[in-house]
Amino acid sequence: MQTLLRVSLGIALLCAAVSAQTERLPKPRAIIIFYADDLGYNDTSAYGCAKVPCPHLETLAQQGLVFTDAHSTSSVCTPSRYSLLTGTYAWRYRGMGILPGDARLILPIKGEQLTLPAMMQLAGYRTAAIGKWHLGLGRGIKPTNWNGLISPSPREVGFDESFIMAATGDRVPCVFIQNGRVVNLDPADPIRVNYTPSFRFPNELVAADMTEEQLTTQLKPWGRSADKQHDKTVIAGISRIGHMSGGKSALWNDQKIADRINEAAVRFIRENAGHPIFLYFCANDIHVPRDPHPRWRGKSQLGIRGDVTVQMDDSLGVVRNALAEAGYKAEETLLIFTSDNGPVIADGYLDGALQDCAGHNPAAPYSGGKYTLREGGTRMPFIVHWPGVVQPGKSAALICQVDISRSLAHLIGFSAIPQDSMLDSQNMLPALCGLSKQGRNELPEHNHATNLALRFNHYKLMPGPNASWQLFDLSTDPVEQNDLAPKQPELVRMLIQRLHAIKQQNGGINCSLPTAAPDTW
Ligand code: NG6
Ligand code: CA
Description:
Layout: H1 2-23, E1 30-36, H2 55-63, E2 65-71, H3 77-86, H4 116-122, E3 126-132, H5 154-157, E4 161-165, E5 176-178, E6 181-182, E7 192-194, H6 212-218, E8 234-235, E9 238-239, E10 243-245, H7 257-271, E11 277-282, H8 303-325, E12 333-339, H9 353-356, H10 375-378, E13 379-385, E14 393-395, E15 399-400, H11 404-412, H12 429-432, E16 442-446, E17 452-456, E18 459-463, E19 469-473, H13 489-504
Parallel strand pairs: 1-11, 1-12, 2-14, 2-15, 3-4, 3-11
Antiparallel strand pairs: 2-13, 4-5, 5-6, 7-10, 8-9, 12-13, 16-17, 17-18, 18-19
Helix pairs in contact: 7-8
Bound molecules: 2-acetamido-2-deoxy-6-O-sulfo-beta-D-galactopyranose and calcium ion.
2-acetamido-2-deoxy-6-O-sulfo-beta-D-galactopyranose binds near residues 38, 76, 227, 229 and 348.
């Protein structure tokens, strides 16, 4: 008993010392979240894949704190982004999943709940969302009017400025939206979007209706659909999900998406130089369709998928350069690099990735990837870069992107988080800044609906076939092969109860989204 008391006292003193240290951390003048799309744990040279040179990320890894057990909340995009920006697990909400391109905004707007960007804004930061959005736009009154002011949009969530793609590169509308308006839209050529698969606009070019010869001659070789979802509107030689007509002057050029997003970020950084800034930078890379700018072609040894990864690395360099040029010193700039979900090699296009990436495990040393509950689904590359403040090194702390909001709240001294906001976010600032090796001891991992696995230290409880449960010990079995459930029924029972309890916390599951917009998506 005495030993136990001594240990508890020791831990309490240590925590107090660490918390005093985090209180002494300076407030960064620039906070950047650099969010890659579908980038796996083992997809870059910074995490060990020599075939994809990423010099900018390597620099970040050398100078920063590299996490080896950091997670997105989900193994797909929308729920991960929702959780990062709200601090609440997306899987608590009914119908949460990958959104179509015409979905209504699902984030709480200002006045409903406090989100990460709204908090940064209240704390005096100028805020911007640049790049992939995929969190819906407008109120869900169909059809969305793409031809006027689209509202609510990132502005109502707490972003002063935005330059975004509504959803994904493979979903219509294929245009950029700046501060709620489609960029370069000709009012005489209005945009219309429809997601009913059998729908057709007059004169719409639809891959599903094309002959083999038309597909061969009219589509880019890497722009051909491999499934029944990606074979709708053909834009710039690539078939997409959904139907679109009009907006010709506003259509993006796939090979220049990264450059356009980079330019928007550079503009925001330059125009706000001198002010505290919060930039949520969402690369379109390395999501499908993969169509890199020709200057990146052949720059990796993994074909087109590796080349778009090199392109993503360039974006990181561009953003960092712009920050330096605008006078944000390295020690004033906190940059968190991570990805929204695990990797996928073939994801709807005949782009040669399966052949080019033969032998490459993008999630190594883990198994699974995007869409899965295995470690590869949510275990992300994650680097905290803050030279002079956060010491370079590696951290094995278990952390999750949902924790970023409360951790940043502590960092900037924001204590007015309402009771209904950031429900699942935990302050991980000591771990994020390398002041503690201790992260969470438990974390639910999500793929779709309310399908969850549970990490408990190095153990993982995973749903198995026929409503059974499996148990893996990741410290000896990172690929999740040896089911220990039959040998450790007590632990399995305890973890099932824990998972159940986590689901019941903070409003439970099947909640309605906390937003005034009608629930029609
Ligand atoms: C899926 C698409 C996939 C990708 C994904 C979204 C099919 C069969 N697959 O529905 O290609 O677009 O949605 O990716 O349509 S995410 O990174 O935004 O979650
Ligand atoms: Ca993604």
